[in-house]
Specification:
Elements (H helix, E strand, L loop, with lengths): L10 H21 L15 E9 L9 H18 L2 E3 L4 E3 H5 L10 E6 L2 E6 L3 H12 L5 E4 L6 E2 L24 E3 L6 E7 L3 E8 L6 E14 L2 E13 L6 E14 L8 E3 L2
Length: 274
Amino acid sequence: MSRKLFCQISPTTYKISVKKCQLLRHIQDWRSDTVFASHKSNKPLPVVIYRHKSLIRRRLGNVDMDLQENKAVNLSLAAPKVTGILIRPGETFSFWHLVGSLSAKKGYLEGLAISNGQPKRGTGGGMCQFTNLIHWMILHTPLEIVEHHHHDGMDLFPDFSRQIPFGTGTSIVYNYLDYRFYNPTNTTYQLITYTTPAYLCGELRATAHQPYTYHIETQNEHFEEHRGIVYRCGEVYRRTIDPRTGNCIERKLIRRNHARVMYDTSHLTVMHMP
């Protein structure tokens, strides 16, 4: 039997470990020379770069739908903390720097959270959907993603109204697993985020048009079985396109998926591997 980590001994040691990680991140950011985006504008910038919306209430396996209702509340509280933020040249966007900690005192409810590859209840659950939306928009820009975490190695739920490719999601935990991107351009960008009764909506705007457009595509998506375990496999690429000519300037692999499927696979077409 392998020796347990300190955080695995008990709920108390887990909380201590979390507090330590949070403190270390605060110290790291305090000592860093990173300039975090903090200025907002109520006036939208003139150029729309990308728009996207995601369905808030999705059927996720056997997860209670009450967690989806609570997620709707949580997203409605968090979206105003991000909307209007300007990411000026040389600045870094940090999700947690804007949204802050999630607590019942602030009105956040128990929503769906993921821990050790398993769904659970957690106060403020549902924020991954928020960073998923932001990440998808940023993939369509020259902005540089400097911190991005995955629910690595696991396909937790069967597809239901999926709008973006598997493998382009995010995983966040206040504050030591963040979602961050840096603006290396001479253009100021702006995020507009809001909720409707059904959707989480986002717009990415800028002061000028981008010289290139970007297209995300998947290839070789399939399910395969190894020694009784089914995995979801495939690659995600990003193509950079010159809009004047339609020519592809660059094709870059941004994600290779090999994720263990954690739900019933009886309805899937699965390749049996030796």
